[in-house]
Amino acid sequence: MRSIDDTDRQILRLLQTDATTSLETIAERLSVSVNTCWRRVRRLEEDGVIQARVAICDPDKLDVGQTVFVAIRTSDHSSAWLDTFAKTVTEIPEVVEFYRMAGDVDYLLKVAVRSVADYDRVYKTLISKLEIADVSATFAMECLKNTTRLPI
């Protein structure tokens, strides 16, 4: 991967705010040519810096506004168990983030559901397909900050 300079960072800041911003608008704001802007955006995409351009949806308006953080502990740390676990979790659409952790918790899931009953269905799916030592769920009461913008 090539290095990222200040112009690249400015482009990324603008696209993180609104991925539909036109190349012409970005070029104008940064005082560069549209062609230069296009080449830089294309390079950032090719290098995997820009992974996707997506629409960010309001979970409340889509009736999946209940966020649940699920801490999972396992006594099996084999690669076979991890492969099965990762495949199972990846197939559950309500799991919107999935992390392997250091510390007391082995894995942390962020789950978007309609209700406690909806989460219970996800929970039952997990425990029916995997041997898990402990599952602990924490329900978010209010989202105070949620951003996809990285500090660049």
What does this structure look like?
The protein is α+β, with helices and mostly antiparallel strands and 152 residues long. It folds into two domains: 6-46, Winged helix-like DNA-binding domain superfamily/Winged helix DNA-binding domain (Arc Repressor Mutant, subunit A); 66-139, 2-Layer Sandwich (Alpha-Beta Plaits). It has five helices and four strands; from the N terminus they run H-H-H-E-H-E-E-H-E. It has helices at 6-17, 23-30, 34-46, 79-90, 116-129, and strands at 66-73, 95-100, 107-113, 134-139. The protein has a four-stranded antiparallel β-sheet with strand order 2-3-1-4. A hairpin with a 6-residue loop joins strand 2 and strand 3 (107-113). Helix 2 packs across helix 3 (34-46). The two termini are 17 Å apart. 11% of the residues are buried. The model has no long low-confidence stretch (mean pLDDT 96).
CATH superfamily of the largest domain: Lrp/AsnC effector binding domain/regulation of amino acid metabolism (RAM) domain
Summarize model confidence as the mean pLDDT: 96
CATH top level of the largest domain is: Alpha Beta
Give the % helix: 25-40%
Radius of gyration, taken over Cα atoms and rounded to an integer in Å: 20 Å
Point out poorly predicted stretches.
none
* Approximate shape: elongated
- Could you give the distance between the termini? 17 Å
